[in-house]
Amino acid sequence: MSLPNTKESLGEDLTRIGLQPGMTVMVHSSLRNVGYTVGGPVTVIRALLEALGPEGTLVMPAESPGVSDPADWNDARVREDWFETIRAHLPVFDPLTTATTMGAISEAFRTYPGTLRSNHPLVSVCANGPLAGDITEEHSLEFSEGRGTPFERLYDLDAQTLLLGVGFNRCTSLHYAESLVPQRRTTTHRYPMNVKGRRVWLESADMANDDGIHFPVVGKKFVAAESTPVCKVGEADSMLFSTRKLVDFAESYFARSLGKPVE
Which of 89, 113, 131, 197 is the most buried (most CB within 10 A)? Predict the structure, then answer.
């Protein structure tokens, strides 16, 4: 009979998968897939921070897509005749109080002591550790997963990526890789912001959703090319790999494949 996850058991699993002191690692996660954990999501965060040690830096996505035009929400509960009321009253992004929709672990990490958050209304990133300020300091409004963002900084730092019970459809570095090619798929986002003391609606170009078309394919090809092992962390199938290697591989894939039938 299996036992519940604890900080100690998760720490052993994280060491087994290859997490080492001093690493910088972006974690995409699902607490449900990790399984029942004594102490909940904070225990997962503590296990990650202990595995990385005081010289390591832990990074997680903190996206908040609800701070946007309701016409883009694809939420069946929200009626079209509500849109103008929502637009008039929707709170602007606040890095201290705006919740993330990236799961229980990411939401707990957002308020964890010492965590910093980048200042993007839709695609912010949280980090905790010696490089947290460096990673979160710059975040371009235009192409929020491209150059001038934490995702470029993670590439430059040769950070690791840990998929903790999730697939490549949740791996934001693939958006960064696609942003580097001329035929990248784009969209426009609208969101409210305070500008010189006034609440205004802004528009910016950004990467379009993949919708499961290319990201799982490029992820599968990358795992095969790199012989990336799948290991259990708790009950979750998980993978640890170089962010830079993934981006380089995916950039080449997108340069060849966008606009063509999926291989």
Answer: 131
Reported as type and span, the H/E element at residue 189 is: strand 186-195
Is 262 within the bounds of a domain?
Answer: no
The full DSSP string for 42-93 is: HHHHHHHHHHH-TT-EEEEE---TTSS-GGGS--TTS-GGGHHHHHHHPPPP
Contact 238, 161 (CB under 8 A): no
How far is C-alpha 60 from the geometric centre of its chain's CA atoms? 6
pLDDT in tens, 125-161: 999 999 999 999 999 999 999 999 999 999 999 999 9
Other Cβ atoms within 10 Å of 139 Cβ, number: 22
Do the domain assignments include residue 194? yes
Share of the chain above pLDDT 70, in %: 98
Please write the tens of the pLDDT for every residue from 81-124.
Answer: 999 999 999 999 999 999 999 999 999 999 999 999 999 999 99
Task: Specify whether the CB–CB gap between 58 and 25 falls below 8 A.
Answer: yes
> Do the Cβ atoms of 201 and 87 come closer than 8 Å?
yes
Question: According to the 3-state scheme, what is the secondary structure of 119-173?
Answer: CCCCCCEEEECCCHHHHHCCCCCCCCCCCCCHHHHHHHCCCEEEEECCCHHHCCH
Tokens of 30: 């699902």
Does residue 2 belong to any structural domain of this protein?
no
**Enclosing domain of residue 241:** 7-257
- The domain total for the chain is 1
